[in-house]
Amino acid sequence: MPDHFQGYQINKTDAGQTCELKQLSDDDLMEGDVTIQVEYSSLNYKDGLALTGKSSVVRKFPLTPGVDFSGTVISSEHSGFKAGDRVVLNGFGVGEVHSGGYAQKARVKGDWLVHLPDGIDSRQAMAIGTAGFTAMLCVTVLENHGIQPESGDLLVTGASGGVGSVAVAILNKLGFRVVAITGRMEEKDYLQGLGAADVLDRKDFSAKARPLYKELWAGAVDVAGGNTLANVLSQIKYGGAVAACGLAESIDLPASVAPFILRGVTLYGIDSVMAPLEKRDAAWKRLAQDLDMNLLEDLSFDLDFNDLPRAAEDILAGKIRGRAIVKIPA
Predict the structure, then answer these.
(1) How many domains are contained in the chain?
(2) Which of 106, 132, 148, 228 falls 20 to 30 Å from 83 in CA-CA distance?
(3) Same domain assignment for residues 140 and 95
(4) Which residues of 58-77 are buried (b: 16+ CB within 10 A; e: fewer)?
(5) What's the whole-number average pLDDT of the chain?
(6) Which residues have C-beta within 8 Å of that of residue 318, sequence separation ≥ 6?
(7) Residue 295 has what pLDDT?
(8) How far apart, in whole angstroms, are the C-alpha atoms of residue 138 and residue 144?
(9) What pLDDT band is residue 16 in, cutting at 50, 70 and 90?
């Protein structure tokens, strides 16, 4: 590829943060031992915050946003990768303190990269993206807790979003009966198409939680936090578990200790940013095996590279359904 390439760049000025689509050069690439031709990225909630500057997600300037990407290795000084390898990256501060996927080129540390498994191409990798990877981590921790389809229904909050949509699809394929929570009941048909047996309105989980409610769910995947998570915890069956991976509603947790000490409920925190390589490899291999790629296509849509600033506003406003795939211009 030529030394000059197209990409978004975020800068900080006295007037605030700016984000522009610019011609960049290899001098704009950050330190690393592997250079990648970026083919696809995606739009995540954190990307929306970075692009709009509505939260201090970006902590180093100038920086190319985009918390994940897939593509092909151009050159490598890392023993684990060579030119032509297909790779995927999410986490490790990419798109926050290290330039990320919204450019035609990226340079990163090879220790952050994962070889794409057979059965997942570059576009599918970003249909999955950070959201799908996080969903797989949540599913895995619930399985490791001992929750099986015969244990009872599983609840997924924020089910119309990226993490929730993929979680519903994976859990359904694994044989679980899945109940989805959404703030957009007009998406009921979409969620049932992904495998949700029932769809509940988020409003039913928005009030202050009781210390304990009747036991309804064997486990849950939560992306919301706040009162939603507190209500979910109060409804988990004895010995069940919740995998918490987001704060779309609130960073607070106004809950009681009652579910933990009276029902033995476990709350797992899921971190997709600094997850070790072994866990990453395992998650991506599981995704190739346990995610229906036809359903993945149904829950995804293509987003034009030039439309990212507008779409960033939409994802923060809860207007994005499923997974937004960003094709990086060749």
Answers:
(1) 2
(2) 132
(3) no
(4) beeeebbbbbbbbbebbebe
(5) 96
(6) 183, 184
(7) 93
(8) 10
(9) confident
Q: What is the pLDDT of residue 2?
A: 59
Contact between residue 226 and residue 183 where contact means Cβ atoms under 8 Å apart: no
Assigned domain for 288 exists? no
DSSP-based three-state secondary structure for 234: helix
Residues 260 and 320 grouped into a single domain: no
Q: Which residue has the tokens 């064997």?
A: 218
Residue 1's pLDDT is: 56
Let me know if residue 90 belongs to a domain: yes
Torsion, Cα 248 10 70 295, to 10 degrees, reads 30
Task: Please write the tens of the pLDDT for every residue from 256-267.
Answer: 999 999 999 999
More confident residue, 183 or 2: 183
Number of neighbours of residue 261 by Cβ within 10 angstroms: 9
Residue type, 44: N
Instruction: Report the percentage of the chain scoring pLDDT > 70.
Output: 99
Residues 258 and 143 in one domain: yes
What CATH number is attached to the domain comprising 211?
Answer: 3.40.50.720
The H-or-E segment that residue 240 falls in is strand 236-244
Range of the structural domain that residue 240 is part of: 130-269
For residue 14, the model assigns a pLDDT of 86
Helices (H), 209-266: 226-234, 258-262
If asked whether residues 249 and 155 sit together in one domain, one would say: yes
Task: Return the structure tokens found at 306.
Answer: 């030039």
